[in-house]
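Consider the following assembly input.
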Amino acid sequence: AAPYPFYGEHQAGIVTPAQDRLHFVAFDVTTGERAELVELLQEWTAAAARLTQGREAGSFGAVGGAPEAAPDDTGEALGLPASGLTLTVGFGTSLFDGRFGLSGKRPAAMSDLPKFPGEQLIPEISGGDLCVQACAHDPQVAVHAIRNLARIGFGKVSVRWSQLGFGRTSSTSRAQATPRNLMGFKDGTNNLKLEDADLLREQLWAGAGDGSPWMTGGSYLVTRKIRMTIETWDRTSLAEQEQIFGRDKGVGAPLGRKAEFDPLDFAAKGPDGEPYIRADAHVRLAHPTSHGNAHLLRRGYNFVDGSDGLGRLDAGLFFIAYQRDPRRQFVPVQMSLARKDPLNEYIKHVSSGLFACPPGVRDAGDYWGRTLF
Ligand code: HEM
């Protein structure tokens, strides 16, 4: 398959049909110099333009440079194709704290997320000044890209946390079959998709009139690492599992209907006179009609970080959602899920991130974040 174009109005990796693998990293900026930060973003952009096309991170590559110098590519992706690699950069709320003269540029849409009931966030794996989302069909390619960006950033940024993911849990194009999350359910059936042009304009991309002109064509990213207590879930009856989501486990159809893409009908009642889809079903609580038509573009990944030493898998969903304004989209949806979703018995949010992903890089003279600086 041809590599995804790096240059464009929007960054790749958002509406790009979700690839199979993820390496997501958040960095803290360690330099206090604005000029060094800008220089780093320029170097990263040049490297990303090469890496996403299946080339090495620097022009000498892994073995073409002087023998006495460290190579400008780490080498583990030599011989591998681009593998659908996309690299998407985001600026965390802490980047706007005044160190770089950016406090006046913090978008209103990026107000701090409220504290949600039940969350148990671990600060060391939350937040970050910068993030890069690497998605590819080959984990070696995604990891290689992040590793080289970290190498290039040595002395200016340090890795704060990073997360590997596999088995995309969302489809973001109608050309893709809907994959399954680790609870065994199809995930991404009712998602914003590449083909929904009007909705994307209205719900995904920041507009020129939204208050932060530098973000025009960009999008806001919320990440949540959601640990699942898989073992408890696995002892829950099938009927209960299906009622929690409001969809059947086999084909993913709304309860009471036959096919995956049949519309959700919250009024429909079963033979017992109760609605097929319970009042607190996940798909009902999260549905746009419950939140003034707020949509999210979900693009999460499964993770299993080994086991936890207590005989349990350290597994769950690394939730990723893009949107035009988290205050109107992620926040109300998550607030209602945190309060009412029976799924909470089986999940725990342990990390959180909020990032402004700027518009796309236009051409070789442009760089990630030019409109901000
Ligand atoms: C729908 C699973 C967390 C927002 C769904 C569906 C499943 C699912 C199986 C139905 C299929 C589909 O339409 O995609 C999960 C699991 C979660 C989780 C296992 C946690 C481990 C969240 C969170 C949010 C969210 C944190 C947002 C705050 C949505 C939305 C829909 C949805 C907006 C579509 C509802 C509709 O319009 O029909 N989720 N989800 N989910 N979920 Fe989640």
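The CA atoms of residues 204 and 323 lie 4 Å apart. Ask yourself how this observation constrains the way the partners meet.
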